TrEMBL record:
SMART domains for the chain: IG (SM00409), IGc2 (SM00408)
Residues making up the signal peptide according to the UniProt record: 1-19
Gene: VSIG10
Organism name: Lates calcarifer
Name this protein carries in UniProt: V-set and immunoglobulin domain containing 10
Membrane topology (UniProt): Single-pass type I membrane protein
Length: 530
């Protein structure tokens, strides 16, 4: 089988390269690999059988034979003149290389000459390339990680010698040769590989004698991820009970897989997509206090367990402020409420009365916001302004309100100076919390979620009163001696407002006198020094 194939190949070469040399001889170049059977043609025109053919190599006769009776060919004899005058070499060796001349005597006293150049070459064969370190995709493409040091090795075998080349075709360079050498292998190295080095790498081996070339190539992809973590953000909708949480992680190749999920809860939010920006639209029925939402970025360039994440823990709004405010008729008063815990941020409004009428800015009401502090300034106070105000905070989880009760006094009750101090003491010197959650869905889904017990309803009132002006508070709260270092002594009161009172602001918050009554009937008073 092998012989037949080789003969066929050599005939092909003959057809391709036969030419007539300057001295009128047909000239043929032949290549054969060591061990092959080579057939050197002589007279090939028509079916005339030469009577005698002589073959000379490099000017010396090597064999003669001929015509109708081909020379006997002992098994050990490698050379043979065939019936048609061609020379058959069995088991070519490197020494068979040379210039062969045939001289055929044809019937009718004519002769025919032909020259054959025999080259003994092999290969390139076993050409292979290796690129390390790289992982192999199912389609055979190799993947390297940006920043790694990559070694390329191209190898093959050729006789007598070969020329090896590493070539690269990428987005910005086509078919450029990187390195070349004579030898059995060719090493190439890229340190700190960058995405621009992504492309097709070809290892080419060319036999220096036969010019036969073999080409192996492979695609190399360079994967990368950004150093930063994904970014978790929220987009609040017009309707405050709806929210979109988005997670973005740009700058990774190929596109990462992002996943939004809920910590420590089976069956919760769990959305996965191959994208660099993943948004989940959620509403109040799916959200609850202290729920942690995490976005995880997965990527082939990140090792297992090294996924990058961002997260946030949702918190219901909790407006804090002074529940009792007193103002003098015909003056202005500013109600203050601080909301700094809500995640995502709450939408805050001021409302008035048990009907909770929304307060809109006007010459009477001035609304302002300084950081987490929300202020409502009421100008030209009259007795009609007395009553309950709500600092209403709403985020996608819950609605929480701070109730503020405004008492209006006529100026005749106190001297102007004392009232001024009194009001400033109440407004500036106090930090009182009284907030309640009006709406939250936590009873619906969060209790079953394994978060542990939710916090109790925040019905407690923490009243922190700085006893800045002893004169004013002498009648209303127990008096404490000032400390020698000049710091203020502070009274802390903790008492619970019964929840029935809590629903109805008018019974919960009244004048300072009533507050004092409450203190006496409830828990003992703690003393704290700041
Ligand atoms: C070819 O062979 C014939 C007879 O065998 C001989 O006379 C002749 O000189 C040879 N020619 C060459 C070029 O060798
Ligand atoms: C063949 O040719 C040679 C010279 O070219 C000549 O001497 C000889 O007589 C010829 N023989 C025949 C049979 O024609
Ligand atoms: C092999 O697969 C990768 C990823 O699936 C793709 O980017 C690449 O183009 C593929 N290569 C070939 C040669 O198909
Ligand atoms: C790459 O090679 C350089 C120099 O040989 C070395 O300093 C660096 O640490 C190597 N980087 C990696 C990722 O192996
Ligand atoms: C390249 O590959 C060849 C053949 O596999 C091997 O002999 C040679 O050591 C390799 N060279 C390097 C630098 O790895
Ligand atoms: C690449 O180069 C080789 C030889 O160097 C050439 O045969 C081939 O056509 C080239 N391919 C492209 C796409 O330029
Ligand atoms: C080697 O193969 C590559 C891709 O298959 C091709 O672009 C290139 O032209 C080939 N080169 C040679 C010399 O055959
Ligand atoms: C929230 O996402 C939905 C689709 O996912 C979109 O239709 C809607 O406009 C987004 N809302 C906001 C406030 O971005
Ligand atoms: C999230 O959903 C995927 C299928 O979409 C599932 O394989 C995975 O276990 C789920 N994870 C959690 C924490 O529920
Ligand atoms: C809230 O989202 C859930 C799930 O997407 C949906 O079934 C429900 O109708 C939504 N509720 C409102 C008020 O949009
Ligand atoms: C203050 O209110 C009274 C009645 O409530 C009104 O008559 C008076 O014009 C107001 N003064 C200012 C400055 O608005």
């Amino acid at each position: 089988m092998r012989i037949v194939a080789t003969v066929a190949l050599l005939h092909l070469c003959l057809c391709a390269t036969a030419a007539v040399s300057g001295n009128g001889f047909a000239e043929t170049a032949l290549t054969a690999a060591p061990g092959d059977v080579a057939l050197l043609p002589c007279f090939t025109l028509g079916n005339v059988t030469p009577s005698l053919t002589t073959w000379m190599k490099n000017g010396r006769e090597v064999i003669r034979g001929g015509g109708s009776s081909p020379s006997p060919s002992p098994a050990e004899q490698r050379l043979e003149v065939l019936h048609d005058g061609s020379l058959n070499i069995k088991g070519v060796t490197p020494g068979d290389e040379g210039s062969y001349l045939c001289n055929s005597s044809l019937p009718g006293n004519s002769t025919f000459h032909a020259r054959v150049l025999l080259q003994v070459t092999r290969g390139p064969k076993d050409v292979s390339l290796s690129i390390r370190p790289a992982t192999v995709l199912p389609n055979g493409t190799l993947v390297a990680l940006r920043g790694s040091n990559i070694s390329f090795n191209c190898s093959g075998s050729s006789f007598p010698s070969q020329w090896l080349t590493w070539a690269f075709t990428g987005a910005s360079s086509s078919n450029s040769s990187l390195v070349s050498t004579f030898g059995s292998w060719l090493d190439y190295r890229i340190e700190d590989i960058q995405p621009s080095a992504q492309g097709v790498y070809s290892c080419r081996a060319r036999n220096t004698v036969s010019d036969q070339a073999v080409n192996k190539s492979t695609q190399l992809l360079v994967y990368y991820v950004p150093d930063r973590h994904p970014e978790c953000m929220w987009e609040l909708a017009q309707d405050p009970s709806h929210v979109n949480f988005s997670c973005t992680w740009y700058g990774a190749y190929p596109t990462p897989t992002l996943r939004w999920r809920e910590e420590k809860r089976e069956g919760g939010i769990n959305v996965t997509e191959v994208t660099d920006s993943l948004t989940v639209a959620l509403n109040r029925s799916l959200l609850c206090d202290k729920q942690t939402l995490t976005c995880t970025a997965q990527h082939p360039a990140l090792a297992q367990g090294k996924e990058k994440t961002c997260s946030f823990t949702l918190k219901s709004p909790y407006p804090k402020g002074d529940p009792l405010v007193m103002a003098l008729e015909a003056t202005s008063i500013t109600l203050t409420c601080t909301e700094s815990v809500s995640v995502p941020p709450a939408k805050n409004t001021w409302r008035k009365g048990l009907q909770q009428d929304l307060i809109v800015p006007s010459s009477k009401y001035v609304l302002s916001k300084e950081g987490a502090e929300l202020k409502l300034t009421i100008h030209n106070i009259s007795k009609d302004d007395e009553g309950v105000y709500f600092c209403h905070s709403e985020n996608p989880l819950a609605v929480t309100e701070l109730e503020v009760y405004l008492t209006v006094r006529t100026s005749s009750a106190y001297t102007g100076a004392i009232v001024g101090i009194f009001i400033s003491a109440l407004i500036v010197g106090s930090a009182v919390i009284i907030a309640k959650t009006v709406y939250s869905s936590r009873h619906r889904i969060c209790l079953g979620g394994g978060f542990g017990q939710m916090e109790e309803d925040r019905g407690d009132v923490l009243s922190l009163v700085e006893s800045d002006d002893e004169q004013i508070f002498q009648d209303t709260v127990p008096r404490l001696p000032p400390l020698t270092n000049g710091r203020h002594t502070t009274l802390v009161q903790i008492h619970r407002i019964p929840s029935s009172d809590h629903e109805d602001a008018e019974t919960a918050d009244t004048s300072p006198q009533q507050q004092e009554d409450t203190e006496q009937t409830e828990e003992p008073v703690d003393l704290v020094t700041f």
